[in-house]
Amino acid sequence: MFKKNKLSIGVAAGLLGAMAMMTSAQAVYIDKDGTGEVLLFPYYNAQDNYVTNVNIVNSTDKTKAVRIRFREGKNSNDVMDFNLYMSPNDVWSGSVQKGSNGAAKIVTADKTCTLPTSLAPSCKTGDCEPGSLPFAAPDVDDKDTLEGYIEVIEMGVLDEDNEDAKKVIDGVLHHDGSPKDCSTVSEAWFKDTGVFWNGEGITAPEGGLFGSSAVLNIPEGTAFAIDPVAIDEYSDEPQHTDPFEDNFLFPSLASGSINESHVTVGGTMIETAWKPHGDCDANQHYCDNNPYPIAHVLLAPHLMNEYFLDPSNGYDGHTDWVTTFPMKKHGIFNDANDVRVNFENGIFDREESRLVIEGVSPAAPTTLEREVNVLTFVTNDGAYDDSRTVLSSPNTTRVGVGPYVHGWARMSFGSGDAYGTISYDIGDYVEWSKRYGTDSDYVSKDDATFQGVPAIGFAAIEGKVGTSSPTRYGDAIPHKVQRND
What we know:
Layout: H1 18-22, E1 29-30, E2 38-45, E3 50-58, E4 64-72, E5 78-86, E6 91-98, E7 104-108, E8 113-115, E9 131-134, E10 147-158, H2 163-172, E11 174-175, E12 178-179, H3 183-188, E13 202-203, E14 209-217, E15 222-226, E16 229-232, E17 260-265, E18 268-274, H4 292-297, E19 299-300, E20 302-308, E21 318-324, E22 340-342, E23 347-349, E24 366-367, E25 372-378, E26 397-400, E27 406-413, E28 415-417, E29 420-422, E30 430-436, E31 441-442, E32 453-454, E33 456-463, E34 473-478, E35 480-482
Parallel strand pairs: 25-26
Antiparallel strand pairs: 1-16, 2-10, 2-16, 3-6, 3-14, 4-5, 4-10, 5-8, 6-7, 7-9, 10-13, 11-12, 14-15, 17-18, 18-30, 19-32, 20-27, 20-35, 21-25, 21-33, 22-24, 22-27, 23-27, 28-29, 30-31, 33-34
């Protein structure tokens, strides 16, 4: 969040031919081509020795207003956000690092126009000094800002038919490597007189954003390249706000105007319309009660990925899983006992063996209380070095895999234990749902497609090539989703 008084996954777009025309023209979906109106980066890390570099690309010939928001890992509080005004084919880049005050900060030498302008690099002497702002929010501990995730939301396209907006379009366009005049953005937000202040000069989002990120362990020389999840058809209305005190929470993942979603299950597309999540707050500029379309496309009953812990031959393997719940802050499975997970019947080595301890599969459920969770896999192999983790998170949850040193695992959401049977589904908020394909019919709200928890993430795997390797390697593997029958 920026305060004035402080520095503060797949779905096809549709089916071919006439079948595509039967579906809604607008429904939220994950764009597997990697571009969209919304980008969700599952993780940033600014712990000691780590930095996270982020790039955002406008691949279109339109000028876009974009909100970038950094959320801390404990409760998803907004600890930094600002507007980007991206000219056609523009790229913005920045780096999340640990600041001298112990909190994370954003550092950028990029010249793309921003609001506030205080983030802009200083180029008065010819050489540009990077701009920097610390992460902060009320009641958020500095250490919780060091890990989190990033939301990028397109607020709209600047209207080329509006004369005042055209001044901004011309001002943010780069000439010889720099925007012509970023002050046109600030002027467009002048109270009472500015075109943006009056809610004009901007049209609905059109998509075409993509991005990349890399978590770097500087001393170890490892890099984990993490692409964001790209979501399209988020809104058919502009959601352009300034990032200051009254509006910093908007737009959000729950404020999009489109209330339908598309998911593909077993090769069949399912279209669902959703009820609102409560009423709108009359005092808010935008309604924040439409979380279910995005929640549905992110829904996962089970997450699967690999682990590598092999200590032999100098490999010194280690694995951390990152699992992020970007919709908890919007009221989806955010009770005290959420989110319960287990690995029952779900830990395997590479040769098909399943972990069983004394006749019982390791099913003990664990509560992942944070909104960004790091799970460290450990083996009881005597040569394994359990003193290190991949991401050096102080908030890690350990997952024992017995004697196995490499294989794969399936993490399931829900449990049956002392807390009672806990299951996760969002079917109660379905308005209607229809399946398209050879067996086209309506889908019950009790269907398995509505089971699971909205989750994104990856496995961070590191090790050495062998005993002669002077440095470590790193790889980031996106989680895979297994759906219930």
